[in-house]
């Protein structure tokens, strides 16, 4: 029987504790501090770190309860070592080190971004190889070529400025909508016309890097459009703006992901990260993959946003691959590159 792996995630504003055995999910407990950041319009690192400190032990107890197991049943511990907020990462890794020592179990310091890819194993089974992964979150937007999620991940391209989720959050703010902006824009866009406004598609020119992204020009274009509307004394058609903005993001993301599959001869695309919860991105990815003859994997929305199951799922792959456990004195790395799956 595969090992029961405990996963601890504290890289941003969700305290996540998951339990995974092989590709079976036993628990996925999450405590979010998002409500504490709303009035600041973004995550405040010190507030997030303190919230992790308060939530970690209760969330771990909840995960054990959900799975109906005891601490002593845990065979291995995986924890996010980066990338993420320095103080937040320290809380999770310190706790993981303490549990590893107290329970005398191996500890695996793993990469948050690889976790967003590995989490799909608990929903759709082991990953095909190779695989192209489109990772879209509040902090990251990358196209990855995944040969083995436990070992070998290569970056094909990434955003040169804002992350896709960051663009959602900034556009929501300029439309007067609350933080985090992604889910709100997704909801409001349902009542709008995605073809109402032709917003720019960044980095899609013939001389642009084919797998890199840029969203700051789009954000500025939305701001200018809204300003012009207000200056002319017209009410801002918020639903149309939201739908047209969302269409521009989903269009570029899916077009580049499919191009990456085609040009690398890869038949499987995975979309992960918080923005993969976006309904239009999911629909467009389905349509374009079907048209291109590609198989698409998108975890359910709850597994797309940050959680502990993704770290437990990655831990399970790393353990299965026979990777050497991390030394107990490993250091967190807020800028950990995705190529370093474990430390
Ligand atoms: O992966 P995640 O939970 O945390 C990071 O690692 O960043 O992603 C959070 C981001 C936020 O920017 C949020 O606005 C965005 O994911 N997001 C969405 C949706 N749900 C969350 N963006 C678009 N549509 C959604 N439905
Ligand atoms: Zn994330």
How would you describe this structure to a colleague?
The chain is α/β, with parallel strands linked by helices and 343 residues long. The chain has two domains: 4-119 and 307-320, 2-Layer Sandwich (Nucleotidyltransferase, domain 5), CATH 3.30.420; 128-298, Nucleotidyltransferase, domain 5, CATH 3.30.420. Helices cover 43% and strands 19% of the residues. The chain contains twelve helices and ten strands. The chain has helices at 34-37, 45-67, 86-103, 112-118, 121-124, 164-174, 181-189, 216-231, 238-263, 279-292, 301-304, 309-320, and strands at residues 4-9, 14-21, 24-32, 76-82, 107-111, 131-136, 141-148, 152-158, 268-272, 295-297. The strands form two sheets. Strands 3-2-1-4-5 form a five-stranded mixed β-sheet, sandwiched between helices. Strands 8-7-6-9-10 form a five-stranded mixed β-sheet, with helices on both faces. Strand 6 and strand 7 form a beta hairpin. Helix 6 (164-174) packs parallel to helix 8 (216-231). The protein is globular and about 65 Å long. The two termini are 25 Å apart. The model has no long low-confidence stretch (mean pLDDT 96). Bound molecules: 5'-O-[(R)-(carboxyoxy)(hydroxy)phosphoryl]adenosine (KG4) and zinc ion (ZN).
């Amino acid at each position: 029987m595969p090992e029961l792996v405990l996963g601890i995630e504290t890289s941003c504003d969700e305290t996540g504790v998951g339990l995974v055995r092989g590709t079976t999910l036993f628990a996925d407990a999450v405590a979010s501090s998002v409500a504490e950041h709303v009035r600041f319009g973004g995550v405040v690192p010190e507030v997030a770190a303190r919230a992790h400190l308060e939530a970690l032990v209760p969330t771990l107890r909840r995960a054990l309860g959900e799975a109906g197991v005891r601490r002593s049943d845990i065979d291995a511990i995986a924890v996010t070592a980066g990338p993420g907020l320095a103080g937040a990462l320290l809380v999770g890794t310190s706790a993981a080190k303490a549990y590893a020592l107290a329970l005398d179990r191996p500890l695996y310091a793993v990469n948050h971004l690889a976790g967003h890819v590995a989490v799909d194993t608990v929903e759709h089974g082991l990953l095909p190889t190779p695989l192209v992964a489109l990772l879209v979150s509040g902090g990251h937007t990358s196209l990855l070529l995944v040969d083995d999620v436990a070992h070998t991940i290569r970056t094909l391209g990434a955003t040169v400025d804002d992350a896709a989720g960051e663009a959602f959050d900034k556009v929501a703010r300029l439309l007067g909508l609350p933080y985090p902006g992604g889910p709100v824009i997704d909801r409001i866009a349902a009542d709008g016309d995605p073809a109402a406004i032709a917003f720019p598609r960044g980095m899609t020119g013939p001389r642009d890097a084919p797998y890199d992204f840029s969203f700051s020009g789009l954000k500025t274009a939305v701001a200018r459009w809204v300003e012009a509307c207000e200056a002319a004394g017209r009410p801002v058609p918020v639903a149309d703006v939201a739908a047209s903005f969302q269409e521009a993001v989903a269009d570029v993301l899916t077009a580049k992901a499919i191009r990456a599959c085609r040009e690398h001869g890869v038949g499987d695309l995975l979309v992960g990260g918080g923005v993969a919860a976006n309904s239009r991105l999911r629909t467009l990815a389905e349509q374009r993959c079907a048209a291109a003859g590609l198989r698409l994997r998108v975890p359910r929305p709850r597994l797309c946003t940050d959680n502990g199951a993704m770290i437990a799922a990655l831990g399970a792959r790393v353990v299965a691959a026979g990777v050497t456990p991390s030394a107990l004195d490993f250091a967190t790395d807020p800028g950990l590159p995705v190529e370093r799956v474990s430390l």
